[in-house]
Design goal:
37% of the residues lie in helices and 18% in strands. The chain has 207 residues and is of the alpha/beta class. It has a 7-stranded parallel sheet with strand order 3-2-4-1-5-6-7, with helices on both faces. Helix 2 links the parallel strand 2 and strand 3. Helix 1 packs across helix 8. The mean pLDDT is 92. The structure holds guanosine-5'-triphosphate (GTP). Homodimer. UreD, UreF and UreG form a complex that acts as a GTP-hydrolysis-dependent molecular chaperone, activating the urease apoprotein by helping to assemble the nickel containing metallocenter of UreC. The UreE protein probably delivers the nickel. Facilitates the functional incorporation of the urease nickel metallocenter. This process requires GTP hydrolysis, probably effectuated by UreG. Keywords: Chaperone, Cytoplasm, GTP-binding, Nickel insertion, Nucleotide-binding.
Length: 207
């Protein structure tokens, strides 16, 4: 069920460069397909189709090729997902024209600087992915992406001991700066992805 006027649920996935957004999408899609859901994927990038091309290959046999699309924003990533989401919305409409029974569209943002949030017109539910390896003080900085998303995902938990990050401190800070939930993940092993799915289900599919 969608909260926007389109008859499909949309989930935004934002976060800094390299935090693990594409890796999370790669983990989520097979699980969503396993649950019988028809999924489309949009990857926003400043000037390339790289993520979309990689995802199209990865999802071969799982997601029709025309349900994986790249949107080239040509500007700051947040422009296409917040200020003017029209290119992304047009892509959602294109998906629906060919696949009217589509259940869910994942919209991955290009990497940003902790400030990006999704326009509610584009995303019914938004995730913000940060990485342990980028420093344990990220939640404490209260970036709008971290504070305002529906679900904060603290990824790369496996790297905490290697970069000297205190995961417990990150979790305490996440709790302190947010009203909403957070989860911890390791997208290399799939750990925590089940929790993300549960939140998405609660947030959009079974809302
Ligand atoms: N160790 C570890 N590496 C991870 C994890 N998640 C992602 N990575 C790696 O981190 C790198 C960046 O991951 P991506 O998924 O491409 O990150 P992204 O946020 O999509 O990056 P951009 O699209 O460039 O902003 C890749 O080399 C991944 O394999 C994780 O949980 N643990």
């Amino acid at each position: 069920m969608s909260l926007t006027h389109r008859d499909v649920a949309t989930v935004g996935i934002g976060g800094p460069v390299g935090s693990g957004k594409t890796s999370l999408v790669s983990e989520l899609v097979p699980e969503l397909r396993e649950r019988g859901l028809d999924v489309g994927v949009i990857a926003n990038d400043i000037l390339t189709q790289e993520d979309a091309d990689a995802l199209r290959e990865r999802f071969a046999g799982l997601v029709p090729k025309d349900l994986v699309a790249g949107v080239e924003t040509g500007a700051c990533p947040h422009t296409g997902i917040r200020e003017d989401p029209s290119m992304n919305l047009a892509q959602v409409d294109d998906f629906l024209a060919e696949h009217p029974d589509l259940d869910l569209v994942l919209v991955e943002s290009g990497g940003d600087n902790l400030a990006a949030t999704f326009n509610p017109e584009l995303a019914d539910y938004s995730l913000y992915v940060i990485s342990v390896a980028e420093g344990e003080d990220i939640p404490r900085k209260r970036g709008p992406g971290v504070v305002e998303c529906d679900l904060l995902v603290i990824n790369k938990t496996d790297l905490a001991p290697h970069v000297g990050a205190d995961l417990d401190a990150m979790e305490r800070d996440a709790e302190a700066v947010r009203d909403g939930p957070f989860v911890t993940t390791n997208c290399k092993t799939g750990e925590g992805v089940e929790d993300v799915l549960e939140h998405i289900h609660k947030g959009v599919l079974f809302a």
